[in-house]
C-alpha cells in the first residue's frame, strides 16, 4: 500500500540545517499494524506528517496505492487527508465548541456528505468505539479516554485506508491505555491498516511490526509472529 | 467538496459561540450604518422641505431683487447700509404690471423686523409692506376680516393683516379684528387674519408675520433703510408655468431699459424664478447631505477595522482549530471561505441592526424633534450592500492569513 524510498527532509533550526529524514526506505502492506519508535527528534514525527499528507519531502518518492503523494498540490493533499487518512493525536484535537457527534461529523462535512447521512454514520461510529450514549456531550464533559475514542471515531468516519496515531496514549492513564490498545487491535483485525508512533514500550509491543528510528534513519525493522 | 450550507453553519456557529464579543465586533458597523441611514434621511427630509417651502412661496413666482453684488461706484456694501442702493421702485413694479405680457400679479414689497405690542403683550415679528396683489403672488388667503385695498395701500393707512402666530401671541383669548396694535411706535388697526401656512423648510414660521400697506410700512417702519419709493423685492407671478421663462426675460429687458443699462453692463437687479432658486437650494442641501453621509461613512470604515481586528485575534486563537480542520481534509479555500463568511455575516448582521436603528432613530427625530425626515427607498439595499462589502474587505486579510497556516505548526500551537 505504501512505498517509500530515499525520503529526505531537512529543517532549518535556527541557523543550522537538521536532517529530520535522511534517506528512509519503507514498505507497508495493507492490513499491517506498525509501531514507529525512537527518541524525540529521530524523525518519526516527520515521517508520519509526510505519510499523512500534512507535509512534503524534499527528496525521495512516496507512493500511496501507486499514487505519487509527494507531487500532490495543496487541494489534492487536503482531499487525500480527508478520504485516505485518519489522524489520531496525542492531545485529541477535538473542537471544544462542538458535541462528540459534531466532532465526528467534521471530516464528512469536508467531502460534502449530507447532514442526515453523516449524522447516522457519526452516531454509528461513536457506537462502534463504545460512546453511543455520549453523542451530545462536549469534549470538556468527557474523560481523556472518552475524548480519544471520539477522536478515533472522527478518524474513522470517512472510511480511511490508513489510521495514523501519533502518541495516542501519551495523555491517558494505564487502564485507559490498555482499552485503547484493545480497540486498535480490534480495528486492525477488521482490516484497517494502522501506524502508531509511540514512546511507550507496551504500546509498541502490541504491534506486529516495529520500526525504530534514530537520527533520521531506520535502524531496525522487526516483525513479530502473530 | 464542502456544501455551502455547512460553511455558513461554521460561520454562524463561531459567531454565536461568543455572543458578547460578536455583538461588540459588529457594533462599529451597527453605528456606521445607523449613522449613514439617519444622516441621509435627515438630508432627504430637508430637501423635501426646501422643495415644499419654496413652492409654498407661491407657484409660478419670479422674485426680483436689487443686486448689491455687481460693481457699483461708491462701494456696494456702504451704499447698501445707507439704503440708497435699492435700485427697484414702485414705478418698476407698475411698469412690469403694465407692460409685461402673461403676468398674473405684481407685488412690490419692503420688510423689516419689529416689536409688536398690544395691551402689554409683546412680540418680535416680521413686517412686510405690500400691496393687495401680494396675496395672489404668494398664494396667501385671508381667513377672517379682509385685506386692505389698493387705495389704503397707496394712502398709507395704518391697517394690518396678521398671521396666526402673531394672533396667538398677542390675542390668545380675544378676537383680533378691530384691535389696535403698536408696530414699533406706530399704531395699526388689525383688519384681517391670514390663513395658516405652517413652518417653512428653513425652520421659519410663515405665520409669524404682519402685513401692512406698502406706503405706511415704508415711511413709518422701515423708513431708515428704504427711502423714497424704493422697494426691496418685487414678486411677479406668471399666469402659468409655460410663460415663466418669457416673463422672466421680459422683466429683465424691461428693467434694464428702465435703469438705462448699456449693452454689456451688469444688471443692477436680479431676477430669479423659483425653479432656479429651488434647484440652487436643493444643490446646497444635497451637498450637506453628502457631507454628513461621508462623515457617517467614516464610522462604517472604522467598524470594518474593528471586524478585521477581532478576526485577526480569532485566527490566532483558533490556530489549532484551523490546523485540525486542515488535517481532516479542509482545503485552504474552505478555511478562507469560512473566515471570510464569518466576517461578512458579522458585518451584515451589524448592517441589518444598524438599518433598523437608523430608521427608528430617524422616525424618532421626526416625532420628537420635529425634524423633517424622509427615508430613502434605496437606504436598505445600499446599507446592507455596503456592510457586506465592509465585511468582505476587512475580513479578507484575516481569512487569507488563516488559509495560509501550515497545518503541522497550527496543530502544535498551544
Question: SSE layout and pairings?
Answer:
The complex is a heterodimer of chains A (about 230) and B (about 425).
Chain A: E1 2-13, E2 16-28, E3 33-37, H1 44-51, E4 59-64, E5 67-68, H2 74-84, E6 85-88, H3 100-109, H4 115-128, H5 144-156, E7 162-166, H6 174-189, E8 193-197, H7 201-206, E9 209-214, E10 217-223
Parallel strand pairs in A: 3-8, 3-9, 6-7, 7-8
Antiparallel strand pairs in A: 1-2, 1-4, 4-5, 9-10
Helix pairs in contact in A: 3-4, 3-5, 4-5
Chain B: H1 4-17, H2 19-56, E1 61-66, H3 76-82, E2 88-89, H4 90-99, E3 103-118, E4 121-130, H5 133-137, E5 142-145, H6 150-155, E6 159-162, H7 164-170, E7 180-183, E8 186-194, E9 209-213, H8 214-221, E10 230-231, E11 233-238, H9 244-258, E12 269-273, H10 274-317, H11 319-327, H12 332-369, H13 379-403, H14 407-412
Parallel strand pairs in B: 4-9, 6-8
Antiparallel strand pairs in B: 1-11, 1-12, 2-10, 3-4, 3-7, 3-11, 5-8, 6-9, 7-8
What does this protein structure show overall?
The complex is a heterodimer of chains A (226) and B (414). The mean pLDDT of chain A is 91. Chain A has one domain: P-loop containing nucleotide triphosphate hydrolases (Rossmann fold). In chain A, helix 3 packs across helix 4. By secondary structure, chain A is α/β, with parallel strands linked by helices. In chain A, 35% of the residues lie in helices and 29% in strands. Chain B has two domains: 183 residues, no CATH class; 200 residues, no CATH class. In chain B, the strands form two sheets. Chain B has a six-stranded mixed barrel with strand order 3-4-9-6-8-7. Chain B contains 14 helices and twelve strands. The relative contact order of chain B is 0.19. Helix content of chain B is 56%, strand content 18%. Chain B is α+β, with helices and mostly antiparallel strands and 414 residues long. The longest helix of chain B has 44 residues. The chains are: A alpha/beta (226), B alpha+beta (414). At the A-B interface, helix 2 and helix 3 of A face helix 1, helix 11, helix 12 and helix 14 of B.
Amino acid at each position: 500500500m505504501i512505498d517509500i524510498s530515499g525520503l529526505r527532509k531537512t529543517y532549518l533550526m535556527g541557523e543550522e540545517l537538521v536532517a529530520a529524514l535522511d534517506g528512509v526506505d519503507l514498505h507497508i502492506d495493507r492490513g499491517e499494524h506498525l509501531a514507529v519508535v525512537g527518541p524525540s527528534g529521530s524523525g518519526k514525527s516527520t515521517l508520519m506528517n509526510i505519510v499523512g499528507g500534512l507535509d512534503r519531502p524534499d527528496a525521495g518518492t512516496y507512493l500511496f496505492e501507486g499514487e505519487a503523494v509527494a507531487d500532490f498540490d495543496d487541494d489534492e493533499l487536503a482531499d487525500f487527508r480527508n478520504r485516505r487518512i485518519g489522524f489520531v493525536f496525542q492531545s485529541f484535537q477535538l473542537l471544544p465548541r462542538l458535541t462528540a457527534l459534531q466532532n465526528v461529523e467534521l471530516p464528512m462535512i469536508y467531502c460534502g456528505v449530507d447532514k442526515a447521512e453523516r449524522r447516522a454514520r457519526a452516531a454509528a461510529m461513536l457506537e462502534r468505539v463504545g460512546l453511543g450514549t455520549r453523542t451530545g456531550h462536549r469534549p470538556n464533559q468527557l474523560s481523556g479516554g472518552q475524548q480519544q475514542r471520539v477522536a478515533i471515531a472522527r478518524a474513522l468516519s470517512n472510511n480511511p485506508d490508513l489510521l495514523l496515531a501519533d502518541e495516542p496514549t501519551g495523555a491517558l492513564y494505564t487502564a485507559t491505555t490498555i482499552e485503547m490498545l484493545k480497540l486498535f487491535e480490534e480495528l486492525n483485525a477488521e482490516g484497517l491498516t494502522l501506524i502508531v508512533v509511540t514512546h511507550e514500550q507496551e504500546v509498541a509491543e502490541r504491534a506486529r511490526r516495529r520500526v525504530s528510528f534514530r537520527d533520521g534513519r531506520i535502524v531496525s525493522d522487526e516483525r513479530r509472529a502473530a | 467538496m464542502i456544501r455551502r450550507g455547512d460553511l455558513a453553519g461554521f460561520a454562524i456557529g463561531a459567531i454565536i459561540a461568543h455572543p458578547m464579543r460578536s455583538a461588540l465586533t459588529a457594533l462599529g458597523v451597527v453605528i456606521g450604518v445607523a449613522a449613514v441611514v439617519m444622516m441621509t434621511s435627515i438630508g432627504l427630509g430637508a430637501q423635501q422641505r426646501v422643495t415644499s417651502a419654496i413652492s409654498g412661496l407661491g407657484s409660478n413666482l419670479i422674485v426680483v431683487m436689487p443686486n448689491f453684488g455687481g460693481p457699483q461706484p461708491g462701494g456696494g456694501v456702504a451704499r447698501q447700509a445707507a439704503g440708497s442702493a435699492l435700485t427697484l421702485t414702485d414705478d418698476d413694479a407698475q411698469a412690469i404690471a403694465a407692460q409685461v405680457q402673461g403676468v398674473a400679479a405684481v407685488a412690490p414689497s419692503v420688510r423689516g423686523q419689529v416689536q409688536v405690542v398690544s395691551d402689554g403683550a409683546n412680540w418680535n415679528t416680521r413686517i412686510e409692506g405690500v400691496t393687495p396683489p401680494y396675496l395672489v403672488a404668494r398664494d396667501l388667503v385671508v381667513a377672517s376680516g379682509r385685506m386692505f385695498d389698493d387705495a389704503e395701500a397707496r394712502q398709507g393707512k395704518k391697517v394690518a393683516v396678521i398671521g396666526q402666530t402673531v394672533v396667538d401671541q398677542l390675542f390668545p383669548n380675544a378676537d383680533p379684528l378691530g384691535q389696535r396694535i403698536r408696530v414699533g411706535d406706530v399704531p395699526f388697526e388689525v383688519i384681517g387674519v391670514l390663513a395658516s401656512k405652517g413652518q417653512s423648510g428653513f425652520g421659519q414660521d410663515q405665520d409669524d408675520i404682519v402685513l401692512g400697506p406698502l406706503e405706511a410700512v415704508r415711511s413709518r417702519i422701515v423708513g431708515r433703510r428704504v427711502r423714497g419709493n424704493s422697494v426691496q423685492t418685487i414678486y411677479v407671478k406668471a399666469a402659468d408655468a409655460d410663460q415663466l421663462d418669457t416673463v422672466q426675460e421680459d422683466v429683465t429687458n424691461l428693467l434694464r431699459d428702465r435703469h438705462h443699462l448699456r449693452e454689456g453692463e451688469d444688471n443692477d437687479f436680479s431676477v430669479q424664478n423659483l425653479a432656479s432658486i429651488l434647484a440652487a437650494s436643493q444643490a446646497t442641501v444635497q451637498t450637506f447631505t453628502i457631507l454628513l453621509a461621508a462623515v457617517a461613512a467614516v464610522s462604517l470604515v472604522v467598524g470594518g477595522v474593528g471586524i478585521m481586528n477581532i478576526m485577526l485575534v480569532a485566527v490566532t486563537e483558533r490556530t489549532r482549530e484551523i490546523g485540525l480542520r486542515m488535517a481532516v481534509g479542509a482545503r485552504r479555500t474552505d478555511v478562507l471561505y469560512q473566515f471570510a463568511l464569518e466576517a461578512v455575516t458579522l458585518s451584515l448582521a451589524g448592517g441589518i441592526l444598524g438599518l433598523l436603528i437608523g430608521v427608528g432613530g430617524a422616525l424618532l427625530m421626526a416625532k420628537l424633534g420635529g425634524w423633517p425626515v424622509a427615508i430613502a427607498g434605496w437606504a436598505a439595499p445600499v446599507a446592507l450592500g455596503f456592510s457586506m462589502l465592509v465585511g468582505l474587505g476587512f475580513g479578507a486579510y484575516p481569512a487569507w492569513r488563516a488559509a495560509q497556516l501550515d497545518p503541522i505548526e497550527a496543530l502544535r500551537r498551544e
